[in-house]
């Protein structure tokens, strides 16, 4: 998307609460993080399941841009090692799907 990262846009209306994706994850231990800093490994989620520190999601959720007023949210499912992405409000067709990353940003939000 212009001025942003890759991003996703809804092609049809999405209702509040609707599950958009359940993405499996690969948990990473803290000692693995320094060795993997490019490609898909630069899109980690916090993963509070010791001995793991972060996780890489294998779905489209890794492509979603940040917003301070997001229209979607996510929820960790530790036992099933997945992340559920769902609509936080009704999202009209053609609107970008966004989430709050929930961490200090390393960039200026667009």
Structural account:
The protein has one helix at residues 30-33, and strands at 8-9, 19-29, 44-46, 52-57, 65-66, 72-77, 82-87, 96-99. It is mainly beta. A 5-stranded antiparallel beta sheet has the order 3-4-2-7-6. A 3-stranded mixed beta sheet has the order 1-8-5, with no helix packed on it. It is globular. The mean pLDDT is 86.
End-to-end Cα distance, whole Å, is 11 Å
Radius of gyration over all CA atoms, rounded = 14 Å
SSE ordering: EEHEEEEEE
Strand order of the largest sheet: 3-4-2-7-6
Average of the residue pLDDT scores = 86
- Tally of DSSP helical segments: 1
The main β sheet shows up as: 5 strands, antiparallel
Quick one: how many beta strands? Answer: 8
Question: What are the low-pLDDT stretches, counting only 5+ consecutive residues below 50?
Answer: none
Offer a quick outline of the entry.
4% of the residues lie in helices and 36% in strands. The chain is mostly beta strands and 110 residues long.
Structural key phrases:
mainly beta; 110 residues; five-stranded antiparallel beta sheet
In terms of topology, how is this protein built?
Elements: E1 8-9, E2 19-29, H1 30-33, E3 44-46, E4 52-57, E5 65-66, E6 72-77, E7 82-87, E8 96-99
Parallel strand pairs: 5-8
Antiparallel strand pairs: 1-8, 2-4, 2-7, 3-4, 6-7
């Amino acid at each position: 998307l212009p001025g942003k990262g890759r991003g996703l846009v809804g092609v049809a209306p999405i209702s509040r609460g609707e599950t958009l994706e359940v993405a499996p994850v690969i948990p990473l231990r803290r000692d693995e993080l320094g060795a993997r800093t490019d490609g898909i490994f630069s899109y980690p989620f916090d993963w509070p399941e010791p001995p793991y520190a972060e996780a890489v999601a294998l779905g489209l959720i890794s492509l979603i841009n940040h917003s301070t007023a997001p229209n979607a949210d996510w929820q960790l499912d530790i036992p099933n090692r997945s992340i559920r992405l769902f609509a936080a409000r009704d999202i009209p067709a053609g609107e970008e799907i966004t989430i709050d990353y929930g961490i200090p940003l390393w960039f200026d939000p667009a």
